[in-house]
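Q: what sequence does this backbone want?
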């Protein structure tokens, strides 16, 4: 079974809300809400991938030094195994502006479970509840 490495981030705003992005139609798991991020390109570190993905997807600029590793998800889907480090970030430049047609929402931690998420993301909520 193929292992897929992706990286995600918990962006936390000044009010303590967490940014969720909705997977657009046409992608696998369309309509589900997730933490922003994406696949690593060849030779890319997880931090560099997040800097690139956040710029491409949300038009914000993040310094690698502002990304702190928090936890990770390891989940077996039907046709691949997902390994996903999750970082936390409270500081970036610019305003979140979705660039790929996805919806985004700033959500209080207590409300995260109200949003349908990919199976790999769901256990991360408990980790965030324990750590934030």
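A:
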């Amino acid at each position: 079974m193929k292992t897929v490495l992706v990286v995600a981030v918990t962006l936390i705003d000044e009010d303590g809300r967490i940014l969720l992005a909705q997977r657009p139609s046409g992608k696998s798991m369309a309509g589900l809400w997730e933490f922003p991020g994406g696949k690593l390109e060849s030779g890319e570190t997880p931090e560099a991938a997040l800097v690139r993905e956040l710029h491409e997807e949300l038009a914000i600029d993040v310094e690698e030094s502002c990304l702190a590793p928090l936890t990770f998800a390891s989940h077996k889907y039907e046709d691949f195994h997902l390994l996903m480090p999750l970082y936390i970030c409270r500081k970036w430049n610019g305003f979140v502006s979705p660039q790929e047609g996805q919806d985004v929402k700033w959500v209080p931690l207590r409300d995260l479970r109200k949003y349908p998420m990919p199976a790999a993301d769901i256990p991360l909520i408990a980790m965030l509840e324990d750590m934030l």
